[in-house]
Amino acid sequence: MDSCDRRTRAYRNGRTFDQCRDIAEAMNPEFKGIIEHNGKLLWSEILDKVDHDEIVYKLTLKFLRRDGYDIGNWQIPEVKKFN
């Protein structure tokens, strides 16, 4: 049975998964600054900043949740700090 090798599969713009993960990690400090300043960050704003790259978008939300932010849900599509 063939399996997918995450190191060689190309995502948008020919990037590997590891490259997408690095891009998402690099963008998080900017998003954290916006959240600290404005109190929240909308999902649509994140999607615009990552140039509508779905993998980077999802990884960004995952890393924000990992770092202690409330990433919301489909009814409240915003990222904010936990109270």
Helix share bin: 40-55%
Largest sheet: 3 strands, antiparallel
Helical stretch tally: 3
Order of helices and strands, N to C?
HEHHEE
Strand content bin: 5-15%
**Number of DSSP strand runs:** 3
The side-by-side strand order for the widest beta sheet comes to 1-3-2
How confident overall, as mean pLDDT? 89
Roughly how many Å is the radius of gyration? 14 Å
Structural class determined from secondary elements: mainly alpha
Span of the ends, CA to CA? 48 Å
List unreliable stretches of 5+ residues.
none
Shape verdict: elongated
Task: Annotate the secondary structure layout.
Elements: H1 17-38, E1 41-42, H2 43-49, H3 54-66, E2 69-70, E3 78-81
Antiparallel strand pairs: 1-3, 2-3
Helix pairs in contact: 1-3
Briefly characterize the structure.
51% of the residues lie in helices and 10% in strands.
Give an overview in words.
By secondary structure, this protein is mainly α. It has helices spanning 17-38, 43-49, 54-66, and strands spanning 41-42, 69-70, 78-81. The protein has a three-stranded antiparallel beta sheet. A hairpin with a 7-residue loop joins strand 2 and strand 3. Helix 1 crosses helix 3 (54-66). 16% of the residues are buried. The mean pLDDT is 89.
Throw out a few tags for this protein.
83 residues; mainly alpha
